[in-house]
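Exam revision sheet. Question 4 asks you to relate a sequence to its structure. Input first:
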Amino acid sequence: MTYTLSSGVKGSVSLDEEQVENWIKCYLEGRQFITNLDDELFGLNPTLVADFKVHNKFSEQREYISTVHMLSNYELEKAYKHIQRTKGKA
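Answer key, structure tokens:
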């Protein structure tokens, strides 16, 4: 999960599915979120969090798909412009 505090400070933490569910519950209820991360305790005050994004196994795939989609649009636009230029010469 990546989060931004109201102060603008950004942070990132790896949470499992249960921890993510607990975080969202704490966020919605305005309660302190405290969890174990391996041998460390991690705490986050949801009232100080401006926004957050939960990453999952599909996050990278979604970003890759949108990049490919933008590239496809660029290639199509380039081909269209080439056809338009070629038409004018014929």
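Marking note for examiners. The two ends are 56 Å apart (CA to CA).
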